[in-house]
Amino acid sequence: MTEEPTITTIAQHAGVSIASVSRVLNGLPTKAETERKVMSAARELGYVPNSAARSLKSRRSNQIGFAMADIGNPVYLAMIREIQPIFKAAGYRLVLHSTDADTADEIDVLRGLGERYIDGLIMIPLRLTGEHLTMFAAARAPIVVIGSVPEDAPVDNVRTDSRAGVRLAVEHLHGLGRRRIGFVNGPLDTVPGAARSAAYAEALAALGLPYDPGLTQVGDFYRAEGARAAARLLDRVPDLDALLCANDLIAFGALDVLRRAGRRVPQDVAVAGMDDTDLATLAWPPLTSVSLGSAERGRAAAELLLDKLENTRRAPRVVTVEPRLVVRASTDPSRIPGEEAP
């Protein structure tokens, strides 16, 4: 195998010093004849300039980072499908990083901004801490956060009103005549978990329904954890007639549990999720879900970051995407082929 040319081989081929080659390849002033020899030798040897070296000169890597909790979550995949084409068209590569919702890992990503391996960052921290806010303020590259942050946070922010989304779902289930409305949530120490827990209680109160902590179960934002949490809730509350899940993955797990328990969906138990992922239409029955605008949030975040890269001195901006309820057969029997509403 032929070895790739280096600045040493270029120097030997051109008959100049290594220092002269380094100066030419890094765009530093040098004699015209020396530059001609070096560039001619580089072409003849097939030398490809190192992108890291170029970035040292320009202070830009032409790469954008996207840090999310779980790269397999369909919410984040929907965002990536919007984010990547926008940056690709602008000449940037998208670098993906899965943090597993680990705060220390997220802080490491933020600290790495000082190394200039990316020119900007889109981040979705599930647990927002004071250290996050400190790192935002000290960041040496633009940051866009998808999710709720304090109003004075020094970053661009794309958010959705998940509390309003929970209310839409609870009102929908109540309108169907359901009164034993259970709730399977993710961890309460996360931003979405805390917001959706509070919204569930508020929505019940607005409808004149009592809040019963026995109707709630905390798990995690994954299908397997959702199944375990739904099973515990169903064992405790066998007369449950509706179930709201804090995301679609939890809802898919709950559908598995209800099927194994012989409970018909939606006739016995109406089930609603949140996020309205692509998989919602593939579930059986197809899942009613609250759309939180994953694609719209991804697109807005990419546009904000591109603008910030060009207008570094502008003040932070906030974009809010409104939720909407998408009704399918998991709550509406009339939408199941061959069946009619009672």
Automatic annotation (TrEMBL):
Transmembrane segment boundaries: none
Chain ranges of the HTH lacI-type domain: 5-58
InterPro entries: HTH_LacI, LacI/GalR-like_sensor, Lambda_DNA-bd_dom_sf, Peripla_BP_I
GO molecular function, one term: transcription cis-regulatory region binding
The keyword Transcription regulation is assigned to this record: yes
Keywords assigned: DNA-binding, Transcription, Transcription regulation
Pfam families on file: LacI (PF00356), Peripla_BP_3 (PF13377)
Protein name (record): LacI family transcriptional regulator
Phylogenetic classification of the source organism: Bacteria, Bacillati, Actinomycetota, Actinomycetes, Streptosporangiales
